[in-house]
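Retry 2 of 3 after timeout on previous attempt. Resubmitting structure tokens to design endpoint.
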């Protein structure tokens, strides 16, 4: 990923816009800047964590083998529910961004309405630090 330094001294990642192949996701920069939609196999490959193991470790002294066994705490083999959850979150995320298309005038109007509605709250509240 490419990064740039912005004037306030913060480093920012340059967005990469993708075609997610579905018409409802086209022309929405919020959605197009998200990573590609993973297949089930891609998702599984990205989350499975297999512990390192060498057959020679069976012959190590017990105090060393104890440390090898601890590797199992980092083992992760997803179950069916894990992939279903990933799919559900992916759909919810994309659907949530559909109404937040910054290129559509109704988004700007709604953002302005929200801003106007919360302004009185900021004017009357006191900030105590």
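Retry 2 succeeded. Sequence:
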């Amino acid at each position: 990923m490419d990064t740039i330094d912005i004037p306030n001294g913060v480093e920012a990642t340059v967005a990469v816009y993708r075609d997610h192949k579905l018409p409802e996701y086209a022309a929405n920069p919020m959605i197009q800047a998200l990573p590609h939609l993973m297949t089930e196999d891609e998702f599984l490959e990205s989350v499975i964590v297999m512990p390192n193991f060498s057959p020679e470790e069976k012959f190590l002294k017990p105090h060393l083998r104890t440390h090898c066994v601890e590797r199992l705490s980092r083992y992760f083999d997803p179950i069916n529910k894990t992939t279903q959850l990933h799919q559900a979150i992916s759909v919810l995320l994309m659907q949530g961004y559909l109404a937040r298309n910054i290129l559509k005038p109704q988004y700007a109007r709604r953002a302005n309405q929200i801003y106007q509605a919360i302004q009185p709250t900021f004017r009357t509240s006191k900030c105590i630090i």
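Attempt log closed. The helical segments are 29-32, 40-47, 62-69, 80-98, 105-124.
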